[in-house]
Amino acid sequence: MASRKKKAPARRTKHNEKHDSARRRDGNGAAEPARLGRRPVWQGHLRLSLVSCPVAIYNATSRTSDISFHLLNPETNNRIRMIPTDPDTGPVERRDLVKGYEIEKDRYVIITNEELQSVRLETTQTLDIERFVDAGEIDRLYWNDPYYLVPSEKSGAEAFAVIRDAMKDTGRIALGRVVMHTRERLMAVEPRGKGLLAYTLRMSNEVVSADQAFDDIPNVKTDKRMIDIAEKIIEQMEGPFEPEEFKDRYEAALRDLIRRKERGEKPVTAPPPEDTNVIDLMEALKKSLGRKGAAPAASRAKHRRAG
Would you give the DSSP letter of residue 243? Predict the structure, then answer.
């Protein structure tokens, strides 16, 4: 592993020691499990008609354990700084920059932070339930990011529980809107355990029409015998969804590469992909029957019992 040139050893800090301790605890380099963030991404009130309670919204997923890279100068191994630059006057301070919306080429409307704050909607402070729908009515194309919605004060716990339990009993999903990250977003809210699970939903103008995407796919008359074999392959690969069985193999390979480079070892080159050109589709389907990769028998039986 290349070392920094002409650089004194980095001074150890509590942050360094904490980071090193975490690495010692996780000797195999595997990603640590996701944790709930310390700060909510939104705080306000959940309102159902005249009933409301203070709530907070937290990210239900985390990417903090993902591997990320910095850009370095190969001559010094120094990290490169991205400095905002005016093409006429040169580098400028980031704190002095302002926001501008381009109305035509090189013409902008300048918007200040105070003016942005003045554009206030009721949904900046309230997630107001507007409608209840069946989950099956929402096309999966519209589902976006998941969040946990929890009461933020003990005084609102009872009202929160009433809304949650009523939704459980009716089996409905609530729709409401909230302002997050400078945008008003449609939210789908459903009960989950003692809390509520909220998903941002994409707006209709964000979803590309399936007809547009699939328009050029040719109409093919399929062979019934091939379909029968494909259905048997599907049956032998049937099993429950167990997310812990699915790992990010690429990230694991990246972590292994980093560990090898850190120890000064030569990286292992990945083998080239096998030729998968299918000449005889029927023969390929027949060979696929009974191949390794089918769901274990125990998992299939468990899945059928659950069904």
Answer: G
Across 37-51, 105-119, 168-182, 278-292, least confident range: 278-292
Contacts of 253 (CB under 8 A, 6+ apart): 270
pLDDT of residue 7: 41
What beta strand segments (E) does 137-207 contain? 143-151, 173-180, 183-192, 195-201
Sorted by where each starts, the structural domains of the chain and their CATH numbers stand as: 42-62+119-204 (2.40.290.10), 222-306 (no CATH)
Residue-wise pLDDT for 15-41, tens only, equals 443 444 334 334 455 667 778 878 999
Residue type at 162 in one-letter notation: V
Q: Which residues pair with 85 in a beta bridge?
A: 91
Task: Catalogue the E-assigned strands of 42-192.
Answer: 42-48, 51-59, 85-86, 90-91, 99-104, 107-111, 126-133, 143-151, 173-180, 183-192
- pTM, rounded to two decimals: 0.72
